[in-house]
Amino acid sequence: MAFNIAIDGPAGAGKSTIARLVAKELSYIYVDTGAMYRAMALYFLRAGIAAGDEEKITAACERITVSLSNEGGEQQVFLNGENVNGLIRTEEVGKMTSAVSVYAPVREKLTQLQRELACTTDLIMDGRDIGTCVLPDAQVKIYLTASVETRGRRRFLELQEKGINCSLEEICEDIEKRDFRDMTREISPLKQAKDAILVDSSEMTIDQVVAKILEIVRDAE
User: Fold this and answer.
1) What is the DSSP annotation of the chain?
2) How far apart are CA 149 and CA 173, in angstroms?
């Protein structure tokens, strides 16, 4: 039987970074569900479909294929056969992702693929509703979070390192708005699963968070 680890939490909590490192330590497959949603959001942006146009988004889902592969130990995301790894991490795509992930057809399209993979593979999967919806039977569930200020500062420094001018205040405001959308959406809202272990990384280093999660996993094995 495959061993599954589900990591949920708000935007900017470091889920992807932590999940990748834990997967490497355990020799598990890392599935970045956020990247899959971002790939769909990129399609909608390219097609000129507004985030609020549910009818067109629903119709477009039938024309989208999102697949994953691992190359050199790194996950690659493909949108209709095109590698879009370098195109899906922009602020524009991030905002579109949060807006369209509320639609049932978008979630259903990707949930099926994620569940099929989890049935046969030891993996760690991160997102907004992994432990509550996608993998409710995961052996380990983590709810990884951090304060808005901490998450905003992390994003601010990341963008600065890339030479992108940005406002810390605006980033924090955007995170708060994204949290509200994710936590209040009708379909699969972001929330801590009843059996998930809370890990607040506000005052923790990356290595400390990884060590904590590895400890939780080993206790559950």
Assistant:
1) ---EEEEE--TTS-HHHHHHHHHHHHTPEEEEHHHHHHHHHHHHHHTT--TT-HHHHHHHHTT--EEEEEETTEEEEEETTEE-TTTS-SHHHHHHHHHHTTSHHHHHHHHHHHHHHHHHS-EEEEESSIIIII-TT-SEEEEEE--HHHHHHHHHHHHHHTT----HHHHHHHHHHHHHHHHH-SSS-----TTPEEEE-TT--HHHHHHHHHHHHHHH-
2) 10
130-159 pLDDT tens trace: 999 999 999 999 999 999 999 999 999 989
Domain spanning 4-220, CATH class: alpha beta
Question: How far is the C-alpha of 110 from the C-alpha of 135, rounded, in Å?
Answer: 13
Which two three-digit tokens encode residue 185?
């959406």
pLDDT value of residue 73 = 67
Extents of the domains making up the chain: 4-220
CA–CA dist 181, 101 (Å, integer): 10
**Residue environment code for 100-123, b if the CB has 16+ CB neighbours within 10 A, otherwise e:** bbbbeebbebbbebbeebbeeebb
Closest among 181, 126, 174, 121 to 151, alpha carbons compared = 174
Distance CA(208)–CA(92), nearest Å, equals 31
Residue 33 contacts residue 125 (beta carbons within 8 Å):
yes
